[in-house]
Each structure stands twice: as C-alpha cells, then as structure tokens.
C-alpha cells in the first residue's frame, strides 16, 4: 500500500506540472493583482478568476489574493464561487494599477446541493451544513442544534482520533474508547454518517481524522432525513474535498508514548481551467500508549477527484482506506473489588494496567468509496445522486475477562483473579448506500420554497465467507475433555478440581502478579460446537419529502419520511426468515430572524431505529427479538453570529423521550446478553460557541446541563436512575491567540480546559468521579514553516473517560506532550 500511495502522489503531481506548462498564445501585456472578500471584509479563498473566454485564469489564495495575466485591451474578468453571485468587471489593461478590491455578495440560491468543492472557510467556525437539510444551508437557517469541529481545531489541538475531539461539542461524552461508542444527550449512540451516507462498519478502533474536513453532530433524532438513527444525535464526518487553490502541506509529529506521525495533504487543479481538481491525504502513525500492551500503527490513504465540466454538472469521486494494527482494549478491572464494593477502590488500579497476552492482535481495515453527481437541469431544478460502497474487515485474537472474578471450589469470589475468555475471530461486512433526490426552487414575491423529494436504499451484508470465530472460556469438566461455561459449587463433581480450585479452560489472570506472556489457544476447548457466524443481512428503503419555506424573516422546515426495514434472519439457511417493519417519520421546525445575525428556532421530530438481529447481533448471544426504538424531541433555541459574523453562538433547550431501549442484562452466563426496558427521558440545556472574536483571537467553547433517566421499567427500582456515562454537567473551552504584528509576529498561544461531571456506570454501586483537565499549546509560524507543541492533562489528573462496571473501566491519558513541525508549499 505504501508503494501505491507514492505512485498516486507522483501521478497527480506530474499532472499538475504538465498543467502549469500550458500557456495562452496571446502575448501577455499586463499583470492584475487583487484581493477578494465577502460583504463583511472576510477574505475568500478558492475564488475562480477568469479573463475573457478562458484566455487566462487564477485562483485566490487563503488571504483572498490573486494575480492574473491579461492580454492587451479591455477584458471582462469574472469572479465566481459557489454560494456567491458571479461578478464580472471590465478591465482596461492600460489603466491597471495598484491592488484591485473585489467584493462578492452571498447568494443562497446558488449553493451546492452536493458537496463537490471543499469548504472555503479556514477557521474554527463553519457557517454551512449539508447534513442539516441535505443541501448546503446556513446553520442560522436550520431549526436544530448542530455541533461541529473543524479541521483547524483538530490541527491546533493535534487531534488524531475522533475520541480526541468530541469534548469540543456540548452534550457529547465517551462511553468507552471503542470506535463510535459515545453518549449524545444521555443516549448511547451508534449512528455514523460519512458525508451524509450511513456507515455501519467502523470497527473497534476510534476513527482517525487526517482525511476529515469537519465532524458534525446533528443533535436529536435525524430519522426524517437519514432513516433509522439515534435519538440523542447523529455523527456526520465530512471528508476533505478538492480545492481550486494549489496547496500542499506535510507535517511530522512526535511526542509522549513513543508517538511518531507523518501526514500530507495535497490539493489543487489539474488543469488551467479548474475543471479537474484533486486532493490526496496520506498519514502514518506508530504510537505506544500509557496502557500496557496497547498502541499500534495507523495508515491512511485518501485520494479524491472532482470533475466540473460546466457550472451545471459536477462529479466527485473519493476513496478512503484506513488500516489499524493494534490490540483490543476491553478496559481494566479494579483490584480487590466485588459486586458489593463501592467506588473507594477505584484508584487501586494503575491507569496503565491492562489485561491480555503479548500475542493478542487486532487488525481493523476500513475501505469506502463514494461517487456523487449534481446535475443542474435549470436555474430552479437540480438532480443529485450518491453511491457509497464500504467494507469493514477484522482479524482478531484477544484474551479478555468474562466480566467476573474467579471463584474457588466453594464458589467464593477471589477478587485478585479474573476469569478469562479467548476469542479468535475473522469478520467482515459490506454496506451499499444509494441516495437520489431532486431539489426544486420556487419564488413568488417574498415567498420562496426549496422542495426536496428523494429516495434512499441502504443494505448491510455479513456474508458466510470470512466470518468465523474460536471461543474458549469457562471451566474444564471432570473428564478434562471439554468445558462448562460457568462454575456452580452445588455441582462440584462435574468439574476438574485441583488444589481446591476449579480448573479454568483459559487460565485466570492474576491482578497482583500479571503474566503477559504468549498463550497457545490450541490448548483450550472451544465452547461452541460450531464457530461459523450465521450470515445476516438487512436493507432499508426510504422515501422522503422536505420543504424549506421562507417568507420575510420567517422560515419553516417540514419533512416526512416513509421507512421500510427488512431484516433477513439466518440468511441462506433452511430456516431463513424476513422480519419487516415500517415507520412514518415526521419533522417540523421554524426559524424566525429577529435580526440578520440573531434568530430563534423551535423543532419537533420523531425517531425510529430497528433492533433486529442484523443490527444488534446474533440473538443467541445478545437476546431478542426486540421491539424497535421510537423517540421524539422538542427543542427550542437561539442562534447568533457575533463580531462581524466571525463567531457563532448556539443556545438550545430540549426534551427527548425514547422507548424500548436496550441495556446489559447482567446475565452471569452470558455477559453480552441484553434486555429491553420501557422508557428513557433526557432533558437539558446546551451552549456552543465557535469562531473568532478578532482576527487574532479564536475560541471554541461549550457547556451543557442535562438529566437522562429511566422513566419506565418493569423493575421499579430502576425508575429515576441516571443513564450510564451521561454526566449531568460538562463543559470545554479552548482559546487561541496569534500575534499578528511586531517582533513576536507568528507566535500562537492556546489554553484549554475540559470538565466532565460524575457519571453512573451499568453497575448501580459504581460511579465515576468528575474531573477537570487543563491543556495548553504554543506555536510559531514563519514563512511556510509552522512549529507547535501541545501539552495535555497538564496537572496529571487521574480520570476515567467511561466504563461499564468494576471489571471494564476506561482510564484517560495522563500528562502527555506532542510536538510537530509542518511545511506548506
């Protein structure tokens, strides 16, 4: 793969060099220089500047500046960019002098309906969203709270994984350190979108970010837009798209835990007309960890191409390949804890402690390719289509706990020994996602409408081939020719007993004297007669309509979706069965502009999420069948843009209700078994701010107060209980100041703090303590070089980002440092 990536880069770069050699046949008489800004004097990058009939052209840089060569005489020079009205200026080359100042005016009727060209902003603020309404829409016009983190924030914080950036969004907290295992407004989340298309194959490792332009969280149920989704919110990852401006950068980082990271980002036009654009993101990381046996390597290769033959036709193709080689971290147990213990023993285990064997491994591979097309039929009507194919492949060997402590022959718990399981597994699944919709714009006086009509199809397949596992655990039987899943002292004669201890199938892990040496799994008895996974499949058909209505300062967003879900159980087997469900999902919201920079909004929406075996997992392991999740939300809020629209502030109040949620059943014989409880309710208030106060001072901050509780359950003792890993209060702030003038020009200083309140776990007797972490950064930019150093958890606070119970807790990183040097050319 490394060779292939080098070849791709050389191919693209050679094309660029070839393109640069193209010259017009006319003699060049005059050089015109200028700067392009919007109405608020903000510089605009990537504006296309064309003289005459494509006689010569240029692209504005990140400061809005451009240089174009003009043939003699009077020439018409056009300035165009998506989202702004095209401006044409007549320039007389005999009178050209000084710096031309060009101001483009926003045009909300000329926005992209499919994201082909990359985001033009280069700050902590992002003004537009595609996921909020399926077309490029200003966040001020969306009747819903949408949190986000831009690539600029990620770069300044030197964040490499998704779990490193979720703190920047209100109401979001980690449940564990697994892939997308987070809590949104009190609800555990699993819905993951890539450019608005659903992905269900992100694996165990937290998603890497080198190819990510922006990470959004659409707060509340988004089922009316995307079908089955979580009630607390939906994570949408926006990938980096090509830019017309030629820009290349490389960055090397190193730091704590023997971390080494190299990344490159290359983009630009492959021809002089700007019709063929490319972008290539490459990254490699080799890193240790503060956790024993953890760390590993990551590889990212992400090429993207855009073809824009005319303003009416736009095509984008992208491929993202990520590979992670590591070990699966199931968390850590507490030394000496039992089921009746309290959290006083929480600090008895060093955060570095882990359970496993040296020959354990996890190889996660994710591959997805996307093609998107926008065809503008007329000034009022456009057709848009997407297709994404994604693949997830897993190769795993792990020694993990059985989520309980060992026992002696009398059944007495031994809290220094962990009962163990071994899993050797190959797994893969494939997802096909197709979406097509039309957008029709109407205008009658002061009344405008944008009507969207569309169809989605999504299919996820777990085939028979390449999906099998070896599972070993429990205790050896008396004949020593097999195993029994759980030890029962009343049936002592059924087990092999040595030194008053039942002999485990997989040796116990001694917490006081850990042994990480290699283990030969062929010596264990498999606990299953067959270890071949049952193939599964589910597919979704969705039809939806949406209308965005605007009259003066008032806007309405109305949506309705009809969803058809089919779960194919025991696919290809004699007992194959199709389980079919359907739902009608509405969405309604309003926005009222008090001023151009202040609006209030309100929204109501319903959510729907099937819980069939193809989504939850094999019913023999996880239980079921389960009823689908249903939810609804009421939300009201205020949005404003401050400091010449540099800073966006969102304040929201909400109430979400969800029915038929799943929780761990606490089954000692099956630690993965789930159970369904009645109802959960979450209510709270949130504040998010992102952007700049001045051109030198940037900020991203958030704070939330929430209460997520069980409101209905067959077990009355659970009613009123706070949901796991859902803090009642949390907040984050990051402030950066960059010196713009004087002898200290180029120096940047940043300070940050992250607060998370107390959280329940799935064990009623264990609560994780609150914590406050302090961060800081210093950087220096000179010419095209940038040097930066980040200092995280400055006061070395011991903390836990999430956890299940006494035997599965996920500690956060201690004090650590990352240093980087980058070059842009």
UniProtKB/TrEMBL annotation:
GO terms for molecular function: siderophore uptake transmembrane transporter activity; signaling receptor activity. One of its GO terms (biological process) is siderophore transport. Residues 139-234 form the TonB-dependent receptor plug domain. It comes from the Bacteria. Gene3D superfamilies: Carboxypeptidase-like, regulatory domain (2.60.40.1120), TonB-dependent receptor, beta-barrel domain (2.40.170.20), TonB-dependent receptor, plug domain (2.170.130.10). Residues 309-794 form the TonB-dependent receptor-like beta-barrel domain. It is found in: Cell outer membrane. Keywords: Cell outer membrane, Ion transport, Iron, Iron transport, Membrane, Receptor, Signal, TonB box, Transmembrane, Transmembrane beta strand, Transport. Its main location: membrane. It is a multi-pass membrane protein. The keyword Membrane applies. One of its GO terms (cellular component) is cell outer membrane. InterPro entries: Beta-barrel_TonB, Beta-barrel_TonB_sf, CarboxyPept-like_regulatory, Plug_dom, Plug_dom_sf, TonB-dep_rcpt-like, TonB_sidphr_rcpt. Residues 1-19 form the signal peptide. Belongs to the TonB-dependent receptor family. PANTHER family: FERRICHROME IRON RECEPTOR-RELATED (PTHR32552), FERRICHROME OUTER MEMBRANE TRANSPORTER_PHAGE RECEPTOR (PTHR32552:SF68). This is TonB-dependent receptor. It comes from Dyadobacter psychrotolerans.
């Amino acid at each position: 793969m490394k060779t292939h990536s080098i070849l791709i880069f050389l191919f693209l770069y050679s094309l660029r060099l070839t393109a640069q050699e193209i010259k017009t046949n006319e003699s060049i008489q005059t050089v015109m220089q200028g700067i392009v800004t919007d109405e608020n004097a903000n510089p605009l990058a990537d504006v296309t500047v064309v003289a005459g009939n494509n006689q010569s052209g240029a692209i504005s840089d990140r400061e809005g500046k451009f240089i174009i060569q003009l043939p003699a005489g009077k020439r018409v020079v056009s300035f165009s960019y998506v989202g702004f009205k095209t401006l044409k200026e007549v320039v007389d080359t005999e009178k050209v002098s000084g710096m031309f100042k060009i101001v483009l005016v926003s045009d909300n009727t000329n926005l992209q309906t499919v994201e082909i060209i990359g985001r033009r902003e280069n700050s902590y603020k992002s003004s537009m969203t595609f996921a909020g309404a399926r077309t490029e829409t200003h966040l001020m016009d969306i009747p819903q709270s949408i949190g986000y983190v831009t690539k600029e924030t990620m770069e300044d914080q030197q964040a490499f994984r998704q779990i490193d950036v979720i703190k920047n969004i209100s109401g979001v907290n980690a449940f564990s350190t697994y892939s997308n295992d987070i809590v949104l407004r009190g609800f555990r989340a699993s819905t993951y979108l890539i450019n608005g298309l659903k992905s269900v194959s992100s694996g165990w490792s937290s998603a890497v970010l080198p190819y990510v332009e922006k990470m959004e969280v659409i707060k509340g149920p988004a089922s009316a837009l995307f079908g089955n989704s979580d009630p607390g919110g939906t994570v949408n990852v926006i990938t980096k798209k090509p830019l017309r401006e030629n820009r290349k950068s490389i960055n090397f980082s190193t730091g704590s835990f023997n971390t080494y990271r190299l990344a490159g980002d290359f983009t630009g036009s492959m021809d002089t007309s700007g019709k063929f654009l490319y972008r290539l993101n490459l990254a490699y990381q080799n890193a240790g960890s503060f956790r024993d046996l953890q760390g590993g390597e990551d590889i990212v290769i992400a090429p993207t191409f855009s073809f824009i033959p005319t303003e009416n036709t736009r095509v984008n193709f992208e491929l993202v390949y990520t590979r992670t080689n590591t070990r699966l971290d199931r968390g850590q147990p507490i030394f000496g804890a039992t089921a009746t213990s309290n959290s006083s023993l929480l600090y008895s285990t060093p955060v570095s402690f882990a359970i496993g064997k040296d020959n354990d491994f996890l190889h996660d591979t994710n591959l997805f390719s996307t093609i998107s097309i926008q065809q503008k039929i007329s000034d009022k009507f456009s057709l848009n289509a997407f297709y994404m194919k994604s693949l997830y492949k897993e190769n795993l060997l792990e020694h993990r706990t059985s989520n309980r402590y060992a026992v002696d022959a009398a059944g007495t718990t031994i809290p220094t020994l962990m009962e163990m399981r071994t899993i050797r597994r190959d797994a893969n699944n494939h997802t096909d996602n197709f979406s097509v919709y039309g957008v029709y714009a109407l205008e009658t006086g002061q009344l405008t409408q944008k009507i969207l009509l569309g169809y989605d199809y999504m299919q996820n397949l777990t085939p028979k081939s390449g999906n099998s596992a070896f599972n070993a655990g429990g205790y050896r039987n008396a004949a020593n020719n097999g195993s029994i899943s759980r030890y029962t002292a009343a049936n002592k004669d059924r087990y092999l007993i040595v030194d008053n201890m039942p002999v485990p199938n997989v040796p116990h892990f001694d917490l006081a004297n850990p042994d990480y040496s290699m283990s030969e799994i062929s010596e264990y008895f498999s606990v299953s007669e067959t270890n071949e996974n049952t193939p599964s499949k589910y597919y979704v058909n969705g039809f939806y309509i949406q209308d965005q209505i605007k009259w003066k300062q008032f806007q309405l967003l109305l949506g309705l979706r009809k969803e058809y879900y089919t779960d194919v159980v025991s696919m290809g087997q004699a007992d194959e069965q199709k389980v079919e469900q359907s739902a009608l999902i509405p969405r309604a919201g309003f926005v009222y502009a008090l001023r151009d920079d202040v609006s209030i909004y309100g929204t109501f929406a319903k959510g729907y999420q099937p819980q069939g075996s193809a989504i939850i997992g094999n019913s023999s392991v996880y239980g079921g069948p389960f009823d689908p999740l249903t939810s609804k939300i009421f939300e009201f809020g205020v949005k404003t843009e401050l400091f010449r629209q540099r800073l966006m502030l969102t304040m929201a109040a909400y109430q979400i209700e969800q029915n038929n949620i799943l929780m761990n059943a606490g089954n000692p014989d099956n630690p993965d078994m789930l159970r369904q409880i009645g109802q959960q309710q979450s209510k709270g208030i949130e504040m998010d701010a992102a952007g700049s106060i001045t051109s030198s001072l940037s900020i991203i901050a958030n704070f939330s107060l929430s209460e997520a509780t069980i409101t209905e359950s067959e077990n009355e003792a659970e009613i009123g209980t706070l949901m796991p890993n859902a803090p009642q209060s949390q907040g984050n702030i990051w402030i950066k100041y960059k010196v713009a003038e004087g002898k200290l020009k180029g120096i940047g200083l940043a300070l940050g703090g992250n607060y998370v309140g107390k959280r329940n776990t799935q064990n009623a007797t264990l609560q994780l303590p609150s914590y406050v972490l302090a961060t800081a950064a210093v950087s220096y930019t000179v010419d095209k070089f940038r040097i930066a150093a980040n200092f995280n958890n400055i006061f070395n606070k011991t903390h836990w980002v999430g956890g299940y119970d006494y035997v599965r807790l996920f500690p956060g990183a201690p004090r650590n440092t990352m240093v980087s040097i980058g070059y842009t050319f």
